[in-house]
UniProtKB/TrEMBL annotation, chains A, B:
InterPro entries: HTH_MarR-typ, MarR/SlyA-like, Tscrpt_reg_MarR-type_CS, WH-like_DNA-bd_sf, WH_DNA-bd_sf. One of its GO terms (biological process) is response to stress. This is MarR family transcriptional regulator. Pfam families: MarR (PF01047). Residues 27-160 form the HTH marR-type domain. It comes from Streptomyces cyaneochromogenes. SUPFAM superfamilies: Winged helix' DNA-binding domain (SSF46785). The lineage of its organism: Bacteria, Bacillati, Actinomycetota, Actinomycetes, Kitasatosporales.
Amino acid sequence: MPGHRSIAEAEKLAAARLGGIPVRHDQMAVVANIYRAASAVRQHLENSVLRGVDLTWTAFVVLWVIWIWGESETRHVAEEAGISKGTLTGVARTLEGRGLVQRADHPTDGRLVLLSLTDEGQELMQRLFPAFNEEEAFVTGQLSDADCRTVADGLRRVVLQVEENGEQRRQDLLGGAAPAPRRSGRRKA
Amino acid sequence: MPGHRSIAEAEKLAAARLGGIPVRHDQMAVVANIYRAASAVRQHLENSVLRGVDLTWTAFVVLWVIWIWGESETRHVAEEAGISKGTLTGVARTLEGRGLVQRADHPTDGRLVLLSLTDEGQELMQRLFPAFNEEEAFVTGQLSDADCRTVADGLRRVVLQVEENGEQRRQDLLGGAAPAPRRSGRRKA
DNA sequence: TCAGAATTGTTCGGATCCAAATCATACGGT
DNA sequence: ACCGTATGATTTGGATCCGAACAATTCTGA
């Protein structure tokens, strides 16, 4: 099982292949390992605690957000869960069909939809979260509490950087030009 | 765009909701931020350098792996790219159709398929990687080189923990019972 | 030698996922 | 009241994505 073992070598190969163009090695390693860790953690949790209750990672995250924050507008749930509004519509539909989530109209604003957990959803999360948190502790088992805080803080700064300066950065890169539309996706009727 | 701002609060809410059951806060924060950072980074890169050349994140990673390692067996590419074999088949088909990747039979083992970049694929990566690396530097812009090494090292330990002990851990959790099959997926004919 | 076990890539069912288009409602100014 | 704009959620097209089933090939041992 290669992968992580070969990052240093991969960087050298990349540098050689670029013929002397400088490479930001440390920054590249952060991005590579963020994604590698995210995949590993997600896979482990899906195949341990989530599989048994037939929940995908995304479905669990959505449940978790609603569980923690209580009845919420869908746009906030999508934001917190890190998925698009359109994706949330589908996931919420699935969860609603399984009796874990219910939707309700906003009392004053007819555009909004509120999501909340059903009793069954509440019970599921109460039972599931401790097991989930246990595995979070497992995957970080090689890190001390202080290490965890350091890593989490570093990651938080990455998230902040993208959220606060990403939009500006993208505009600068594209030079004001409209971003190329996705090749896939809906077309005008 | 809340999210990161509320993690501490979310943890308190979670603890309250669990009614005194201890929560591993630091570990929870690491997992939450790993995933948040992965989403943010992926989104930024897709919407900056990748969109213009009509590549998804996964397609780029696959190209990168083949570019760095040269002609490779598909199983190794899937492993390095962090996707399943089945997914790679589809992605490789897409990239082959766009003339960026070519496949070849293994000279001695008829089961294997080798993937390599076409000339066009080579040129694309040569042009694309510097821009990609530039954005890797941007998203980590709030971290010093030393910070980057620290964070990358911590993440590497998470990956290692899952890779080296994850399988055993899952078996222990399930108590030897066969893992529940996915609800979705192919059925016996 | 040759039948069963192992390994590899592909097919396939079902669910996600994004972003553009679209539909629906609320709000602004006149 | 009315109309244009802003802001919601949903629909839709295309591409992923996983993992089980499957087909093809190689390996193993008696």
